What does this fold into?
Amino acid sequence: MATRSTSRAAFRFELRDRVAAGNQLLLCGIVAALFIGGLILGSLTQPGLFAAGAFAIAVGAIAALSVPWSQVPAGWVAAVPILDIFAIAVLRLAEPTSGVGLLWAFPAMWLASLGRWGLVTGCALTTTLYWVVVAFGPYSVFTFSTLLLPLVIIAISSAGYSSSQRFAAQRELLDAQAARLAFARAAAVRQEQLVSEVLDTVDFGVVRLSVGGDIVYENDAVGRFSSAIPGLHAASARTDLLAEDGVTPLDPSDHPLARVRRGETIEDEVVWSRDAEGRLSALSFASRRLIDHRGEDSGAVIVARDVTAEREALRARDDLVASVSHELRTPLTSVLGYLELALDDDLPDRARRHVDTALSSGERLLAIVADILSASRSSRHSVESSVHPREIDVADVVRASALALKPLAEERVIKVSMTGDERVAAYADASRIRQVVDNLLGNAIKFNRDGGAVELAVHAEGDTSVIEVRDTGVGIAEADRAHVFERFYRASEDVAGNGLGLAISAEIVKAHGGQISVESTLGHGSTFVVELPARGPGGRNA
It folds into this structure.
């Protein structure tokens, strides 16, 4: 506040200096021109008296130029126009018929600009001197013009006073607006500093891109990540950047920064980098486009997180699961072998049924162990290698699964029904699709309510065979739907499970060239949809 007041006062002082010099020089120039012209034309009746008045005005001009009016009290500046009023009175006495009395308008307007007291002083002094000059001059006759000149001076002074007041009001308004603008700017700067300080404290990198793709902001963490993973700033042609699998070299055009500059939006894109000592580091990138108040593109924000520890933990978990699965498969294979040998012997019918049931369950368990082992491998083609598609009737697979799980549904009074076509052709591995249907139907029963319902639907849509599993269960929250097909993810801790069923099912369906999706409303049930190719390679009918 003190700074604004000081600057405002300095402006007024500077303005006072300019007004004093300008007004006085203008009046001095007019009087000098009249004096010189009168001398040349020989029209001056009292040259000496006229010269005395002109000299007084010249003295006022010298004072206006030499006196630092910004350093003296404001009232002292009125001395110059008051001197001019008396000097013009002398000129009027020297030349009563020349009309020099009109020059009183200059000092009167000057005084009016100084305030109300200046207006009153200028009008009163000018009128009084004029009437005194008229009364004691050679033409002491009061006429209509004797009243007209003071009225004109008063009108001009009043107009000057009004103009100065409007100017002062406008100046005050501009000062107030400038103060508000300065306050808003200071607040914006403080807010920007606060945001920058907060972003500099977080452990993830934040990069702001302009519409043209230039980097306009980055926090401190970006510098740390740039040393860990080259290429954060420039997706140049490098060979030390790897794709998400940690093996494939990353093409420069596929770098997250390059993709965002092309206008793409990315989510959890991982880039690996190998340092000079052979250590791998991973960054996860995510971006969002920015929209301004007009609804137009305003650039993008990229967030980068160091996920090296997370990825190593996932890899360690997969290695552990693979090790455990491998250790389980070896003795289980031996058990199945001995069960098969037992079936080759002569056994009573009841014992044969028991051994046969144990063998069937053991084979299912061995398949599950194999699936866990496949899910834990880093190769995306591990499931594909165990899929052997052929021409099958997928409706038969669904009916067999419903029949096998019917006792489980009856325990909770859940009705399982099947609709759709009697026969639906598909090019798939019957045992693997049975595993998918068993998992989906088992979940529909497991997460259902007692007395609920499950509907299985199978139909063909062109070259696609569709399996739908609908239930009236608890449903899946929106936040969980995006993760239900991830390995080891469990949406509910209340029901037993290892979180692998849906992940393995999704991999099996993908290995067939199909896709699986889910629609769900929390509290109203879920619908899983499996789409499989109806035709094999080459377009032959299944």
User: Anything to note?
Assistant: The longest strand covers residues 280-291.
